[in-house]
Amino acid sequence: MSEIILVTGAAGQLGQRVIHHLIETYKVAPGNIVAATRSPEKLSELEKKGVVTRKADFDDAAGLEKAFAGVDRLLIISTDALDTPGKRLAQHKGAVAAAVKSGVKHIAYTSMPGPDNSLVTFAPDHLGSENAIKASGIAHTIIRDAWYHDNYLHGMPHNLQGGKWYSATGDGKISTISRDDCALAIAAALASGTSESATYTVTGTQSLNSRQIAAIVSDVAGKPLEVIDVTDEQLGQGMRGAGLPGFVADMLVSADANTRAGKFDIVTEDFTKLTGKQPQPLKDFFVEHKAALTA
């Protein structure tokens, strides 16, 4: 009997891609995959493929225990509860406790690079979640995903329209990776059948500063893009002025500060260790998504 793998957040972008790679890349039988989300009605397409669907609400501890019943390997994709301090960590701790009660044999978790030494506002959530998993006594795989290439598609089209990118990263470098490559690495870990505990930091093959990134964007888009150095305060004010919620602005400012401090300048070969492949370079990603970049 093959292992039963449950993926939380299965309706989200990362969860969908993890399940895609489990089935298509690693040939896991759909019937051995449980897709879980608080809104299972969103999973009808997966159900048609033979994937089992269950309701999993991170604010309902008893419900999580029920959802995790009979599961061998559990992937906890970190939740999006960032607007209330402490809420996400409480949700994750509840999921770990439910996994213990349900007899889950292995927990995988999506974290971030260097959460124990980070300026990013949500880093304590990830560190606390990692520690809760380690304290559970269950074998685990922690996958620390670098900043997504995809994140640039949110603000970069606007930057290109004005020809200016306001950044508080200074000369700091960051290594980024596509969301799909992260999903591929996570699926590889889930499908491996390992009983060992390990932590992987999944990054691109190089670190770049904002001017190097801007040059790639400009080259692909065929438009000039100048980086304008600003302070954390100026960046935060600009984001709030543009209508971003305060907690989102604070998060993005903290990410720039983390880059400036060199704490995102991490390059590993863990992606290749897990998948046997090379991650997609940033330029190739922008070429693939040129329509979104220049929208």
Map the helices and strands.
Layout (H helix, E strand, L loop, with lengths): L4 E3 L5 H12 L8 E5 L6 H5 L3 E4 L5 H7 L5 E4 L10 H16 L3 E6 L11 H14 L2 E7 L6 H11 L1 E4 L11 H13 L6 E5 L7 H12 L4 E4 L2 H10 L4 H15 L9 H6 L6 H7 L1 H4 L2
Parallel strand pairs: 1-2, 1-4, 2-3, 4-5, 5-6, 6-8, 7-9
Key descriptive features of the protein:
295 residues; alpha/beta; 7-stranded parallel β-sheet; two-stranded parallel sheet; 45% helix; globular
Strand content: 5-15%
Side-by-side strand order of the widest sheet: 3-2-1-4-5-6-8
Low-pLDDT ranges: none
Major sheet attributes? 7 strands, parallel
The secondary structure category is: alpha/beta
Radius of gyration: 19 Å
Rough outline? globular
Mean pLDDT: 96
The total count of strands amounts to 9
N- to C-terminal separation?
48 Å
Order of helices and strands: EHEHEHEHEHEHEHEHEHHHHH
Tell me roughly what share of residues is in helical segments: 40-55%
* Tally of alpha and pi helices: 13
Pfam families: NmrA (PF05368)
Protein name: SDR family oxidoreductase
Domain NmrA-like: 2-237
